[in-house]
Write a structure and sequence with these properties.
- By secondary structure, the chain is mainly α.
- The protein has one domain: MetI-like (MetI-like fold).
- 72% of the residues lie in helices and 0% in strands.
- The chain has 14 helices and no strands.
- The longest helix is centred in the last third of the chain and has 37 residues.
- The radius of gyration is 22 Å and the shape is elongated.
- It starts with a helix and ends with a helix.
- The N terminus is likely disordered.
Amino acid sequence: MTAALEQDLTGDLAPRGEVGEPARRETWEAFRRNPMGVASAAVLGLLVVVALAAPLIADYPSGFSADVLREPSAAHWFGTDNLGRDIFGQVVWGTRVSMFVGAAASALAIALGVVVGVLSAYVRRVDAILRMVVDLSLSLPVLPLMILVAALAGPSLPTIILVISFFSWPEVARVVRAQALAVVGLPYMDAARVLGGGHGWILRKHLLPAVAPVISVTVVLTASRAVLSEAGLSFLGLGDPTSWSWGRILYESQQSGSMTSAWWTTLFPSIAILVLVIAATLVAIAYNDARNPRTRED
């Protein structure tokens, strides 16, 4: 998450008065008028389709063949690796695992981050403690700790998902708390309490819908960061050795020594990672601009 986008996400939400179906419709119309946002959303949609339809697009890359380290051609669009396996198939099947890890890890991180952020803003007695926990978590060296925990737990898909989500939730909590604080002190929240609304009803009907746009943006950004983290851990040999991911393709290339001699073994999985991260970031920026009435008026 870029610093500028994170600062924009933590701006005041409630004063904009965006509540209900008309506001969502205006946001959608503004988003549709942003060609970069629409194109980026289409790219993300295409990646999801590739992940779901991987068995229909390419055969699962397994075994070996005599076509060792072949450059990209009509027979092998992305070339082959040191064992003659088709890299196009690896990238396609790697899309399924990478997208699944990104979705699962971001879902867990979002769930924990939203709970902590909302409670910190709504229950002021625990705000200092939760804020200290979040600040402490954000001050930790994330990458070395992720490597350590993944190495101790052993390489597997569930381990990667849990490790990434555990180190991703503090940023979500900080953004959600900042938005929730802007809503908690508004008059309609006081009115809901005066009218006898229970805490659960207030959270469900007022606070969570008010921070939902920020959560939507954070989901996309957290998922892209999870894919990057998975690629980094897999490149270090800490990913699931039984399934293909974009990080494992890079790991296999590095282990075989073909990373420097066969450019195509690293180029295409790297492009896939880059495309996903850029598309997710642009979608988040476009949506954040679309939900802001001040931006729509420019």
